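Per your request, structure below.
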């Protein structure tokens, strides 16, 4: 596509020597003629910098220096981005081969959309576990838009701001909730765009993340029963963990399959 937008992809990394090659390989598989790949390293000491150096042919911009956390790293990447659309993909996660071409296509046909998103495939121990379809309509009530699948127009960052560096875990939710509160338009695609392994910082620190989710929700949508939805999110997480420990992961998977079908049906009606 000669008129395809330039898409900037940002990877924030710190001591991810094992995970970063998987992310870069995914970028290479999905890479088109209109992609800028940015790697922001926070001062790794485990060999991650060697991985970056050995992949310079696939990286358009990189920097390695101490930062103030993930939000700060994201913001440095956004400042370096030249693309009309920006995606953020953490080390260890990877795109589907068709993701960038899909985003380029919908960007052309939906010039009024600020935020594009889709389905996230979760993996554990090398096996697919859950497929989660983003649902912007429920964003006020739950973390229903999955950050690895998100692509945001550069102009939308200029209009609504970048990541709040006071957040350590739920900075993506705070940003998306802020965008929605300010009238940004979302478009969810019923298609898997990204893959994530269940060993990231948010997964390990899930309760701290939920506390930040509650903080953001209280700020932007206080009319909702914030305590109720916080309690519900905690209970859902505990139930999912209990089902997994009891060998009943299939029950949770069936719930997500039903949820995805319901959301996809709503997306079709909205289209």
């Amino acid at each position: 596509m000669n008129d395809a937008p330039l898409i900037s992809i940002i990877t924030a990394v710190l001591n991810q020597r094992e995970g970063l090659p998987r992310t870069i390989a995914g970028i290479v598989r999905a890479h088109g003629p209109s992609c800028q790949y940015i790697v922001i390293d926070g001062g790794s000491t485990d060999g991650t910098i060697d991985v970056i150096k050995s992949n310079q042919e696939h990286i358009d911009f990189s920097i390695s220096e101490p930062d103030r956390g993930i939000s700060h790293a994201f913001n440095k990447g956004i400042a370096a981005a030249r693309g009309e659309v920006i995606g953020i993909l953490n080390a260890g996660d990877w795109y589907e081969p068709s993701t960038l071409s899909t985003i380029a296509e919908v960007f052309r046909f939906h010039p009024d959309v600020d935020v594009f998103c889709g389905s996230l495939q979760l993996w554990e121990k090398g096996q697919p576990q859950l497929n989660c379809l983003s649902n912007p309509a429920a964003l006020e009530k739950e973390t229903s838009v999955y950050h690895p699948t998100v692509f945001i127009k550069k102009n939308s960052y200029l209009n609504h701001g970048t990541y709040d560096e006071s957040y350590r875990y739920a900075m993506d939710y705070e940003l998306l909730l802020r965008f929605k509160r300010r009238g940004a338009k979302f478009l969810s695609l019923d298609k898997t765009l990204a893959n994530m392994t269940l060993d990231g910082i948010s997964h390990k620190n899930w309760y701290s993340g939920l506390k930040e989710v509650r903080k953001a929700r209280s700020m932007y949508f206080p009319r909702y029963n914030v305590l109720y939805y916080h309690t519900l999110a905690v209970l859902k997480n505990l139930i999912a963990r209990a089902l997994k420990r009891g060998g009943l992961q299939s029950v949770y998977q069936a719930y997500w399959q039903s949820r995805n079908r319901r959301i996809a049906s709503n997306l079709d009606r909205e289209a």
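The chain has a mean pLDDT of 86.

Regards,
D.
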